[in-house]
Amino acid sequence: MSSLHSLDIQSLLAGYQKNDFSVQEVAKSCLEAISKKNPQLNALLEVSKDRVLARAAELDQKKSDAQRLKLFGVPIAIKDNILVKDWQCTAGSKILQGYRSPYTATTVARLEAEGAVVLGKANCDEFAMGSSNESSAFGPCRNPWDLERVPGGSSGGSAAAVAGSLCPAALGSDTGGSIRQPASLCGLVGIKPSYGRVSRFGAIAYASSLDQVGPLGKTVWDSARVLEVISGWDRFDATTSKAPVPSYSDALKESTLKGLKFGFCKSWLEGVDPAVQKAFENSMQLLKQAGAEIVEIDLPYTKYSLSVYYLIAPSEASSNLARYDGVHYGFRAPEFKDSETLYNRSRGQGFGKEVKLRIMLGTYALSAGYYDAFYLKATQVRKMIQQDFSNAFKKCDAVLTPTSPSTAFKLGEKSDDPLKMYLSDVFTLPVNLAGLPAVSIPCGLDDLRLPIGLQIIGRPFDELRLLQMARVHESLFGVLKHP
Ligand code: GLN
Questions:
Q1: Would you call 178 a catalytic residue per the annotation?
Q2: Which residues contact 398 (CB under 8 A, 6 or more apart)?
Q3: What DSSP string runs through 145-190?
Q4: Which residue, of 23, 250, 426, 482, is most buried by count of CB atoms within 10 Å of its CB?
C-alpha cells in the first residue's frame, strides 16, 4: 500500500467504498511521502502528524460515512494564506511567523464537513504576490517535474504538493492567476471560480475585489468535486452568490461539445513559446474533432490588463496590509521607542521586498492628486475589459488561451526583473479583472518534458459547462503521468 499517496480522489473514494484500505493507511502513506520528498520540494510549511493521524482515526471510526460524504478520507493541502483553526497561517510572510489561526476558513470547514483531512499548510509567495513562489519568506518551493525550476505561484506549494504526489488535491487562491499558472507549470487541473462563487471568509486578503479560493487536482473530476464542496453562499462573506451549486463532478458524465463555440484571439499568441503555441493549436484541433466550432474574437481592451491589474491589486493590497502593524498579531520588531518606531520597524523588518514594492505602488496610486489619474482610471478600464468579455460571449460559449506564455522557468531566472515575472500572468489577469471562472488543464509537454496548460474561460457562474468542456478535452488528451 505504499503508493496510496499518489491515488487521485476518485480512486481513493472507490477504494474506501470497497474497504480496500483505511483512512489511516492513506494518511500514513501521505505522511511518508512528505518526509521523503518535502525536504527537497519545500511544498508544505507545516504538517502536524498527530493532528492528521487523529483525524484519520476519527474517520475510520465512522466507516459508514464513506458512502455519504463527498470527500471522505481525502487528504488535502491548504495554501498557507487560508486559515485552519490552531494551524499556523503565515501567508508566506515573516510578519505572520508564529501566528496560529483562531478560526477555520469557510472553504476548509466545508471540506472537513465532507470528510476531508487537512494534511498541511502549503508554501506560497508572500501574501500571494508572485508567480514563482520565490517571494516566500520560508524559501522557494521546487517543481516536482524539474527541481531546478519553479512550480509557479503564488500557490506554488499547493501545486508542488499535488504534482509531487504528497496528496491528491490542494486549495489555492487566485487573484491574478495564482491557481491556474502553477497548475499549468505543474501539469494539473486548477480552477479559478467566478468572483462570488466561493467564500473568502478566513482567506487572508490580498486584493479583495479579485481574490478567489479554488482547487488544484490531478483530474477534472477531482477538481470539480472539491469545487462543489467549497462553493456557495456564506453568511460571513457578503460577496458570495446565492446561486445554487450544481454537483459539478456528477455533471461531467454528460460532457459534450456539440454545438458549442470556442473563441480565440490570434493576437494573444504573439510572443508565446513555440512549444506552447503548438500545444495550444493541437488543443483547438482536438476540440474541433469533438464537435466544437472555433471562432476568432477580438478583446481590444485586454491588452491593458497588466497595467490595470498592477494598479488595482497593489492599491487594494496597500489597504489590506495596513493591519500588520506589529501590534495585533505576528511579528514585532524587538527594539522600538514609541508606537511610531514600533509600526515602522515591525513593517520594515517583517515584510519582504516584493510586498513593500506593492504597498508603495498602491499607496502612491491611491494618494490625493494621483487617485484620478491612476486608481480611478484603472477601474474605468477594468469595466471596458469586462465589456470586452460580455461582447465575446455573444459570439462564443468560452474563450481559449494558453494559461501561461512559457513552461516552468528556472529558479532565479526572473526574480530580479519584476516586469518579466508579471508577464507570466498576461493570460490569467484579465479573467480576475472580469470576475469570470476559468480552468487550466494540461495540454502538452515541451521538449524538456515540462507541462503546458490550456486555459478555458467561461461565462459568469457557468462553471458547470466550463468543467464539462475541460472534461471532453481531458478525455481526448489524457491525464499526465506525474513524476
Ligand atoms: N502573480 C500575480 C501577482 O503577483 C497574481 C498573484 C495571485 O493570483 N495571487 O499579483
A1: yes
A2: 260, 262, 263, 456, 457, 458, 459, 465, 466, 469
A3: TBTTB---SSSHHHHHHHHTTSSSEEEEEESSSTTHHHHHHHT-EE
A4: 23
Residue 416: the pLDDT is 87
CATH 3.40.1010.10 fits 1-483, yes or no: no
| Cα dihedral 93/99/102/106 (nearest 10) | 20
Residue indicated by cell numbers 470527500: 71
Ligand 1 atom closest to 178 (CA): 8
Rounded CA separation 74/56 (Å):
9
Phi-psi region of 330 (alpha: psi -120 to 50; beta: other; left: phi over 0): left
Indicate if 258 belongs to the active site: no
Ligand 1 pocket, residue 134 CB under 6 Å? no
Q: Is the CB of 305 under 6 A from ligand 1?
A: no
Task: Cell numbers for 409, please give them.
Answer: 522557468
Q: Is the CB of 154 under 6 A from ligand 1?
A: yes
* Mutation test residue for ligand 1: of 204, 306, 425, 432, the one with most atoms within 8 Å of CB: 425
pLDDT score of 114: 98
Go through the chain and tell me how many residues it has: 483
The C-alpha atoms of residue 368 and residue 9 are separated, in whole angstroms, by: 51
What's the pLDDT at 328? 86
pTM of the complete model: 0.98
Q: What CA–CA distance (Å, rounded) separates 212 from 224?
A: 15
Asked if residue 177 has its Cβ within 6 Å of ligand 1, the reply is yes
pLDDT of amino acid 483: 87
pLDDT of res. 198:
98
Which one-letter amino acid corresponds to residue 314? P
433 CB near ligand 1 (under 6 Å): no
Q: Look at residue 418 in the predicted model and tell me its pLDDT.
A: 87
CA of 131 to the centre of ligand 1 (A): 6
Closest CA to 216 of 153, 260, 273, 137: 153
Domain coordinates of the chain in residue numbers?
Answer: 1-483
Distance CA(462)–CA(460), nearest Å, equals: 5
Quote the pLDDT of residue 2.
Answer: 54
Residue 79 annotated among the catalytic residues of the structure = yes
Protein residue with least CA distance to atom 5, ligand 1? 176
Tell me the C-alpha distance between 193 and 245, whole Å.
Answer: 12
Residue 131 Cβ contacting ligand 1 at under 6 Å: yes
Q: Which ligand 1 atom is at minimum distance from the Cα of 175? A: 8
**Per-block mean pLDDT, blocks of 10 residues, the chain (483 long):** 88 97 98 98 97 98 94 98 98 96 98 98 98 98 98 98 98 98 98 98 98 98 98 98 98 93 93 96 96 96 97 98 92 94 97 97 95 95 98 98 97 91 94 98 98 98 98 95 89
